[in-house]
């Protein structure tokens, strides 16, 4: 017999052949399944109505309960209440480390040693900086310096902040070289309080010195409408014969005029 099934369907009789018909309808022929103990009750296979009781379908042992997989256990309804309760399923082996283990282990050295751009920029803000422009006569042979304030501030802020200190450093650099004609263009809405705009007092200081020029901007129905700063830069550089300090290529203005094309080139 196959051990993977609950009961062996080969039934042995008590001296009677399975083909023998009982003498009376109420006389019942009983059979005992193999492997069952002698004290278990005899199970009627043929009920009083003479019809054979339909046997339970045979299922693999993996789909039955632990009680039914045990040898000698009968599938009758009378014996099922005697079965022990099913035990809860055993947990699967942990192939991956749990979250608790990761927390106990702590962060790795790679995470601690990594440096972000925001962290570096905040570290530079901890070092005090003061804009000092000495009141000395400059050189008259130098060209007018037109600084793209937005481009310089964003570049100094590592593409994440609008660093007004970067504008102040650029102005101080050209001031020490002897340039006195310096103009910085910044949109007007940059003067408002914004967590991404750092050290706005430099804009106020440059505006008091007449170096900072604010391009017009306004709010209409909650939307910001600002003028194109690049046009102010090119127009002033064309008018004064100056040089623009920026990282922008101004490709969209190359075909507008020959003078602008020469300045961009």
From TrEMBL:
Subcellular location as annotated: Nucleus, PML body; Nucleus, Nucleolus
One Gene Ontology molecular-function label: RNA binding
GO cellular component terms attached to this protein's record: nucleolus; PML body
Keywords: Immunity, Innate immunity, Nucleus, RNA-binding
Listed InterPro entries: RNase_Zc3h12_NYN, ZC3H12/N4BP1_RNase_Reg
Positions of region (Disordered): 60-84
GO annotation, biological process: innate immune response; negative regulation of proteasomal ubiquitin-dependent protein catabolic process; negative regulation of protein ubiquitination
Keyword Chaperone among UniProt keywords: no
RNase NYN domain: residues covered: 142-265
Name of protein: NEDD4-binding protein 1
